[in-house]
Design brief:
With about 190 residues, this protein is mainly beta. The protein contains no helices and 16 strands. It is flat.
Length: about 190
């Protein structure tokens, strides 16, 4: 399906230049003079190579239509991630390179949507937010106010996150899976 390039989001699969490309990053550029454009960082699914492509904001791109199946993340083993279809109990294994943006937010038994193109898994789609525990964070500094200052912390998945100064280790928080940012206490 043809869509305007400004509608492209991270995780979309595009049919471009004779191959399937997964969008890793997007950046909308509006220069002082000239036409606005979209800068896309994409990875070729078959070959694994990455490219940066700048599209005019009026251009249209071909978004691949994918079939989605609800699957449960079972476990990870030596760079391989195992999932089970919740309806048919069929199991699939995906390589770490396919999940690079999802890994920091996945826990065993978590339900995700796996997107297939012609019975081939291409992408894992997480919920917009997940609840994870902060297992480690710096102590609050005396005199520091609860303003926009944040301190570093580590989630139970091992992923780093910036949290408000009043949070302590052991607190469950809601995390935005698209940006990796702290949303609220859970």
């Amino acid at each position: 399906m043809l869509i305007n390039v400004t509608s492209v989001r991270v995780g979309n699969i595009l049919d471009w230049d004779g191959g399937l490309w997964k969008v890793m990053k997007t950046h909308h550029v509006t220069p002082g003079k000239g036409v606005a454009c979209m800068q896309l960082e994409m990875r070729n699914i078959e070959k694994g190579n990455k490219t940066n492509k700048r599209f005019n904001s009026t251009e249209k791109v071909e978004r691949v239509t994918l079939n989605q199946r609800k699957m449960q993340f079972l476990y990870a083993d030596a760079g391989q991630y195992h999932f089970m279809d919740v309806e048919t109990y069929d199991q699939i294994t995906l390589d770490e390179s396919m999940l690079e943006t999802a890994i920091p937010y996945m826990l065993p038994e978590m339900e995700v949507e796996v997107e297939f193109y012609e019975d081939r898994p291409l992408n894992v789609k997480l919920p917009l937010s997940v609840v994870l525990e902060v297992v480690e964070c710096d102590a609050a500094i005396k005199g520091q106010t609860a303003t926009s200052s944040y301190k570093p912390g580590v989630l139970e998945t091992g992923s780093p996150i910036m949290v408000p100064p009043y949070l302590e280790a052991g607190t469950k928080v809601r995390v935005n899976t698209e940006t990796g940012e702290y949303m609220e206490r859970a």
